[in-house]
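G.,

No rush on this.
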Amino acid sequence: MKSYLKGGIIVLVSSALGYQLYPILNDTKQDISQFNNSEQSKNSEHSQVSNLGTPDTLIIQESKALSNTRKMSDESETMTTQKIEHTTKLSNDISEDYSIEKTYAKEELKQWSIEHKEKLNQIIDDNMPVSISSVMKSSIGNNNQMLNDPSLQQDHIEDDNWTYLMEQDMRAYITQHELAAGFELLNISCKQLICDVIGIEREANVWFQIYRGFYSFPNILFPKDGNRPLNIVRMDNGIPYIYAQIMFKAHKSS
């Protein structure tokens, strides 16, 4: 009986103590939980601050960014300079090539004038009396731009095409003229906007009628002071032997 009584008393005391201690233990638990949450928040803030870095770190990062920007700017400037140098070199190469080509064209024209003079002398020897041949050669060779001082009036490639077409046109004009039977055509040559004609007038005043018809050609250059084409006539036994030039202007592209 005493054992039962002691057991009941112990139970009652334990219950009373548990009821009294529960709030205290519960508050302690909450405090610990709050403390842990606070520590986690502090750690998070510290982590964020660490991610932002210290002032020294930020300065280093900005310095690196600025250095990279300058490097990119220098590389861009270098590339621009290289492009300019390449363009300048290409332009100089083109100019040099053009200069070489022009020099070659001048030498070629000079050689043509020498050969043309020899050709005219041969035509004179073959078709004119000895009494006037020397005088005719001398007259033709005096102040003759085609023979003594040829100059490039147009691109030499364009001139080759112009020469061929103009010689054909002038030959056709003379041979198809209504007075063609009164004029013996010996030669037509064209070069650098000048053409010369050499022939024999078999009927009086025929050449003048034919010659003035050339001034209906396109781009003809009319005679003027300081730029007059040669027009030489030498007579033998009443027969006129003729050397004449016709000048043209450069064709203007539309």
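When you get to it, here's the other one too:
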Amino acid sequence: MTTNPYLNAPLSPTRPKMFGSPLAKVVWTLVPIVSISLAAAVPFVVAAVKGVIKPWLAGVYVAAEVLILILATAIDPQGDSPFAGMLLILLIVTAATHTALLDNDKVTVGK
């Protein structure tokens, strides 16, 4: 009896998942929104620790969050500028969208 290399080949390891359930996905997606962008990079740091994404991508999110928060504060320390608010809303929307896409197999950047 001959062996078939396709049937006897070991399965390739699957990429780790960020979310264990749909509820976990909703909760992690709400983190940047509820924290008003102060914890926008937290889901990406957790994903890097779990091995879902590469660590450099989490570093980019941490650096971008710190840069945007410093820039929004430096633009208008009094809080009257609509540009600073727009920067924070842009960070919230971007982080929440990308958090929801962490387990998407079609997205390959940083994985």
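The helical segments are 5-8, 22-34, 42-50, 55-75, 82-100. The first helix runs from residue 5 to 8.

Enjoy the weekend,
O.
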